[in-house]
Design a protein that fits this description.
This protein is α/β, with parallel strands linked by helices. The chain is 36% helix and 17% strand. The structure holds zinc ion.
Length: 218
């Protein structure tokens, strides 16, 4: 199966991605790039920010982990890849935006929901997703009568909000947010509807982002 990747690479037109036009030559990209944003998204194989937003190389600094979680800033957790990526994005690339991008049917969140309250035998995956357990446990307690699909969606969106709040535990992020040099966003992508929802801090709701409807070609 890995041959599929090699096959695509070998047949790829280096001046085009096949669908998008005007893809810049990789050699032409400035070494000191200025990405539009840093995006923290899930490692899920279906969750490709470059596909959702039709990105070109150099446009976004990508940080990926299981369930798009942000650990609380703590020296005791180090080394932590996500923490290092955040610091790189903010201090070196000076990104003006950070997006926590969650998604529907997240296996990481599903795994977290099924974790027992306490376990001495957590796997590495369990230990990672357990970071979001407290807030989802609270949701489960107040909404256990709802259908599983709804409870999963609630936990997926709650984990985005949790990660947003934890971003500000990083001193370099907190400082730039306070000086309006950096804006934090929580977005949720629904695979089934192919729709994006953005967290609105005023209403504390995820609001569907309007899409431009294209006329069907004949
Ligand atoms: Zn996921």
């Amino acid at each position: 199966m890995i041959e599929i990747l090699l096959e695509r690479y070998r047949n790829r037109d280096s001046r085009s991605d096949g669908n998008a036009k005007n893809l810049p030559f990789l050699d032409d990209l400035e070494p000191a790039i200025s990405p539009i944003a840093a995006i923290i998204s899930c490692s899920d194989t279906r969750m490709e920010p470059s596909r959702v937003f039709e990105l070109y190389p150099g446009e976004v600094f990508s940080i990926r982990n299981i369930a798009n979680l942000v650990p609380i800033h703590s020296r005791r957790n180090y080394p932590c890849e996500t923490a290092a990526g955040l610091e790189f994005a903010v201090k070196i690339l000076r990104v003006p935006h950070i997006v926590v991008l969650g998604h529907s049917n997240c296996m990481g969140i599903h795994t977290m929901m099924e974790l027992p309250y306490f376990s001495a035998n957590d796997s590495e995956v369990d230990r990672w997703v357990r970071q979001a357990k407290p807030i989802c446990e609270y949701l489960e307690n107040i909404s256990h009568r709802l259908p599983l699909e709804t409870r999963e969606k609630n936990c997926e969106q709650a984990s985005i909000r949790l990660s947003l709040s934890r971003l500000t535990t990083y001193p370099c992020i907190r400082t730039r947010v306070e000086t309006n040099e950096l804006v934090l966003h929580g977005w949720y992508f629904d695979f089934s509807e192919d729709e994006l929802f953005r967290f609105d801090p005023d209403s504390e709701c995820f609001i569907r982002d309007a899409r431009v409807k294209k006329a069907k070609s004949t």
